[in-house]
Structures are given as structure tokens and as C-alpha cells.
Amino acid sequence: MPEDLILKVENLNVELGGERIIEDLSFALKEKELLVILGPNGAGKSTLLKTLLGLIPYQGLIKWKENLHLGYVPEEFVIPGNLPLSLKEFFQFKKERPEKISQALGWVGIEASGKFLEKRLCTFSSGQLRRTLIAWAMSDEPDVLFLDEPMLFIDIHGRETIYDSLVKIWESKRQSIILVSHEIGEVCKKADKILALNKRKLFYGPPEEIITPQNLAKIYGSPISL
Amino acid sequence: MDLQFLYSLIVGVFIGGVAGYLGFLMITKRMALVGDALGHAALPGIAIALIYGFNPSWGAIPALIVGILLIWFFEMHTKLPMEALTGIVFTASVAIAFLFLPESEVSTALIGDISKISFSDTIFSVILSLIVFFILKKIFSKMILASLSEDLARVEHVDTKKYNFIFLLCIAIVVALGIKVTGSLLMGALVITPAAAARNVASNLFQYSFGALIIGVISCVLGILLFKVFALPAGPFVILTASLIFLISLIFKKQ
Q1: Is B255 contained in some domain?
Q2: ∠ at Cα A145 (A140, A149), nearest 5°?
Q3: Nearest CA in chain B to A47
């Protein structure tokens, strides 16, 4: 594997419940690269992410550089009704110190005072919980950060803050990001590579080549403009 | 205070505490009725222990192991949900137990008897309770994370299968120990009611888990004291005390 590659995927096939979700997919991820996986709902994006994380059995080759620390923001994350789990305790699952918690929360635009850290997660809005989860995944500075629809439930203002901080962190650290999104947002323009997926690989390359009206119409099945 | 009563109290404190602490994790993992089901699955073992005159807890352990293995085996070979299989195994166990459980021992098997506890039983109960408590404390945060998102836990290198197995083993031990106090019929409540009460008033996991532990201890101690005063079985008193605390907790429920 070339020196700057951290992930190589070749001829990846994934079947779930007898249905083929991903077909014959090949791509690679370099160090410090921001890869956006784009596609309509049901295209197999989340399945691809989970497969890369080793959560789903597959056929083909997935080769990671050794000793990488991975961080993950799953698409679905719900705190069951009135579970008294405080924000601080949630971060203590990672054995994080309070100053580190505040720092990570700052990255996603949450100002965390001592009192705020004692708040129960079940009282958070969906957007706040989403931000918290992103901060949680970033807090121990993983080498590769996997984000599955990170902007779910987050308003436009929040999206800007989070995208800005994601890009800032990504620029300041040797960190790769794989981000799954069903919509074409700001982050697509900042991506190094876009992988447009609909079971098979539709397009793979830098955003300026991929995000064209003709390609988008192919990805989503109808004309779309930014 | 006579020695026998002191043994009962010590056993009550330790088993009540660890059962409460365990219940906190069981509610979080939505396994609230597993304690109940296992309490019933232990009945054939309890029956044998009562017939041959040894501690019901030691009879319960092999019966529980057989019960859990059967549920696992059926789960692997059918597509039926776990709760249905648990239902089949525990009712079959009750049926088997009642074929040979002597009539004079029915009450002891169903609602427990803490009046005859030997020194060695006390020591064993204390040691096992402590071991289970420290194991649960160790796996606590991993279990909670896995209950929130199994995928996330696995990415964080939590071996969920291993921890689920350890957890099930802990439940089996606590059920076996608790049967001595509350019997097979009331065992489910000993793990669930204190934890449910603590959940109502807790602001965080620390208060929730240790609140459950403390309410478990209080319920057992008060229940055993009431048994001493009224000379009626301790099991129902323990559970009624826990239920009363649960009712009181509703007044102070967190929104």
C-alpha cells in the first residue's frame, strides 16, 4: 500500500438479508483527505460506512493502515426516555477530563459551563444531541472520523458552525474524514473527493468534476441545482 | 440480637445492594423481566435443594445455567424472539418443579425464607455479592454505551458479545442469591423495583446506580426487621418496602 494511503477498498460486495447493498466498489482514502459519500436515501451509504468500520461482513478487500484510531458518529442515536445520563458522564465513557470535554463541545458550538456538563442528555433537543455526539467522537482526536449524516436535525446556523469547525480541525490535524450525506451541502465543495453511490459507484473524484448538473441528475434521478 | 438474625441482616444488605445495582443496568438494557423469568427457571433446582436440605441458592445455580443454555440453544436454532423462548423455558421449569416440590416447601420456594442461614452461607453470599458488584462496576460504562448504540460501542472496541455474556452470568448469580431472600416468585421485583425508584429521582448515572443500590439495601433491611417483628416471611415485606419507596419516588420524579 502506498505510504500516504490509509485505506484501500477493492471489489467490495456487501449483502444484507439476501439483498445486494454494495456492488463491486473500489476506492481509496489518503491521509488528511475529506471524502464525502453522496447518494439518495437507500443507496447503501450507511452500510458502506459500517462495513468500513468492521461492523458488517463483506466480500472483497478492505485494507486499513495499521494502528489507526477511528471515531464514529452513527446516523441513529437516541437516548431512551428519561435515562439520567449526564453530559459529563457520557464523555467519561471515553475517560475524558472536563477541560477536554469543554474543548470538544466548543468545536461544535456548544458553550459548556460546569453546570451545563451536569445536564441530562435526555433533555437535549435532537440538534443538541447530534452536536454532542459529534464532539464526543472528535474528543479523543481520532485519525479517521466517520460521520453518518452529521447534520441531521441541525439548523442552518448550526450547520455552518459545525462545518466550519470540522474543516478547521481537519486542516489543523492529520485527520481524515469520511462523511456520508444524502444532500449536497457546503461540505461537498470543501471535500477532496466525492464518492457518489447508488449501490454501484456512480462517480468518484474531486467535487468540481462530480458536482455538475448532469451528474447530479444521474445520482438523484432528477435534475437538481445548487 | 441473636446470631441467626444478624446473618439474615448481613445477607440482606449485600444481596439487596447488589440486586439494586444490577437492576439499574437491567432496566437500561430493557431486560427488566429477565430477573423474573430466571427466578422461575431456577425452581427445579430450588426444589431439589429443599428436598435434600441444602441452601436453595446452590440448587438454583445449576438450574439457571441449564435454563440459560437452553434459551441460547433455542435462539440459535429457531428464529423466535428471545422473550418467547424465555417464556417457554421458565414456564416449563415451573411445571417440572411442581411435579416433585413437596407441599410443605412451596412457600419457601416461592417467597423465600431467610430465617435459616448458616455462617458459611452468609460468607458465600457476601463474597459472591461483592464479586458481582465489582464486575458490574467494571463493565458498567461499556454496557451503557452498548445499550445506546451497539455499533458505536463496537467501534470503541467494546466486545459486546463478551460483555453480554458476563452480564447474563451476573444476573444468574444475583438471582440465585436473591432467591434465598425473596423466593422465586418475588425475585424479579428485588432487582427491578429499587432501580425503578432510583431512576425516578436520579439526575445522573451515579445517583441512579448507587440510589438503586441503597434502596435495595434499605428494602432488605426494613423487610427483614418487619419479619422479625411480625414473624411473617421476609420476602413479601422486602418487596413491599421497595414498592412503597417506588411510590414515594413518584412524588419526587424528575421531569
Answers
A1: no
A2: 125
A3: B151
